D-2-hydroxyglutarate dehydrogenase, mitochondrial
Amino acid sequence: MSSRSEAITCEFCIALQVRVLYCITGASSLVLKPKTTDDVSRIMAHCDKRHLAVVPQGGNTGLVGGSVPVFDEVVLSTALMNKILDLDEISGVVTCQAGCILETLDDHVAERGLAMPLDLGAKASCHIGGNVSTSAGGLRLIRYGSLHGSVLGLEAVLASGEVLDCMSGMRKDNTGYDLKQLLIGSEGTLGVVTKVAILCPSRPAAVNVALLACNSFADVLKTLQKGKAMLSEILSAFELIDSASMMAVEKYLHLRNPLSSGEFYCLIETSGSHAGHDEEKLTAFLDSVMEEGSVCDGTVAQGITQQKDLWALRERVAEALLREGYTYKYDVSLPTRHFYDIVVDMRRHLAGAAVLGCYGYGHVGDGNVHLNVTTRQYDADVGHRIEPYVFEWVRGRHGSISAEHGLGFKKRDFIHYSKAASAVAWMKRFKTLMDPNGILNPYKTLPE
Ligand code: FAD
Ligand code: S2G
Ligand code: ZN
């Protein structure tokens, strides 16, 4: 898996994160950096007894304010919990501490012909414990599925300091309730993830990356369906960049779009075990979509450098939009046929507002669109024009108001746009059961 993260600098992650957290500036006076599960257990027991609030923090690349204190919560960083504990090369299961950086893990398993089952632009900074706690999606979910499937085992420390041992390297384990699933995506509100066992697929021997131009979103959908059918098991990413986003990366980052025209751009990646076989399938697919006319132009990267260049066009959209101004970010899941309708409708809805741009890009292969609206600076009127309109829009199409970034601080009050009241009530019961003093990441994920 080509590490494209050079293009995504750590500074950018911080800039993006800071911009997103425009309205949150905590006042923590204490950051703790435990090294072991036992350290975490003692810290939590101490804090629980004294009702001291704790924010678990991984790589701090989250985009919804989940890892940032709201007031004076103690920050518990996993930065020093970065040991890789085991790698079973036959089953492909890597066991590590929660503070391992995703890219470091990927480099480590690559030496044994394996790959991490997720890839995101923040890979150089984010921790696997943070990935698990946000149930991160990323660029390859279409191929390797969600962390709810690839995480086989988990160890966490509960608010009381009790260690919850759900560690296992087994793909099948039907013995009682699967408690680790509660922690995956719990954003630090139910426990501090301290260890993870995750299933790594074989590293692909052959990778192709293509950029295709389409003249309509209907053509994008046709191309996606054809891609899933003709590329099938070798399809590893299918991402969308709309023309506005493409213009932004050209204008603000001076990246080059190798295609002459198009309303939409599909970035497609295949990953397989045999270059000849994969190229044959990819060529047949490209011939078919060009003949059919759903694709009007396209290019296939010749070598790693061109693959990175094409990926940068997609992965650096958020960075480009930051250069334009303040960014209102929405990470939503929709039925794929509506994936771009929200962008078209939002542009209409915001006509006349003090908006610089309205952008749609993201993981069209799994129905997760990143809708971003930019203004010169933070503008409350624009914010009120967008919310709750955007959440009502998503609810109206039975989508999710947070596909992969979580709810954190910024979106916790909107959970009811995607979850039934009974479900939220049970979430609160579990939260009270597992954290009776409410010290773990208060003000996050669940509404008061
Ligand atoms: P943090 O930001 O430190 O924390 C995130 C949340 O998890 C917080 O609520 C925190 O309290 C909790 N947490 C962290 N560690 C633990 C732990 N050990 N135990 C319990 N709780 C914990 N996200 C995607 O899903 N897909 C993408 O494609 C994607 N692309 C991105 C691209 C860029 C450039 C950037 C900056 C971010 C991107 N993100 C993406 C968002 C972010 O990287 C993910 O949410 C990531 O999983 C966060 O990991 P982290 O270690 O930085 O966690
Ligand atoms: C992506 C993260 C960056 C953003 O690029 O896939 O999940 O905020 C996003 O759009
Ligand atoms: Zn994303």
